[in-house]
Amino acid sequence: MVVDDHPMWREGVARDLAERGFEVVATAGDAASAMRIAKAVRPNVVLMDLNLGELSGVDATLMITGELPETRVLVLSASGEHDDVLQAVKAGASGYLVKSASAEELVEAVNRTAAGDAVFTAGLAGLVLGEYRRMAAAPDDAEDKPQLTDRETEVLRLVAKGLTARQIANRLVISHRTVENHVQSTLRKLQLHNRVELARYAIEHGLDSEPEAER
């Protein structure tokens, strides 16, 4: 589903995605319509603009992710401003892409979002990670924290940075299956449901430092 207040842009993006094999189930030009239509058609991915008038794309994102947990929201905005990115992620967006992205980057981002990855335009992932590190609440009692292994923590950091399982496998020189096993184990320990929630957990807990080199 494509949500944007500019008809030419909205229809152009919808057409481009359809030509590349995606099923565009609906479009909307404002937040109220987006929220109403999304509940009716239940799209896998919503491509969401932020500037939609009285109600913003952040408002629509918050409602859609709250009422349709299986639907993922990928923001596609002209703005790369810090506050806009942060508010979108806090509202539940799975990722954030600026409108200067190429058609190929958009297609890849939609595919990755549908697969459960957190996707950000280059440079924005680090921005979000750094901000959540500063805003994170006081640390919980160490005894109450889930105990992750060093490798699980390492994989979690890379998930938060937006890497795919295959990219993580290449980075750590382990198999793709091993990465998936670590991801599933971490999800169970943290009582989370998917990679988006996993990335958000890592962001909220400030896990943005580079993992130590393998010994």
Automatic annotation (TrEMBL):
Segments crossing the lipid bilayer: none
Modified residue annotations for 4-aspartylphosphate: 49
Residue ranges annotated for the HTH luxR-type domain, each copy included: 141-206
Pfam families named in the record: GerE, Response_reg
Keywords, in A-Z order: DNA-binding, Phosphoprotein
A Gene Ontology biological process term: phosphorelay signal transduction system
PROSITE patterns: HTH_LUXR_1, HTH_LUXR_2, RESPONSE_REGULATORY
GO-annotated molecular function: DNA binding
Domain (Response regulatory) ranges: 1-114
Keyword DNA-binding attached: yes
Name assigned to this protein: Response regulator transcription factor
Annotated organism of origin: Lentzea tibetensis
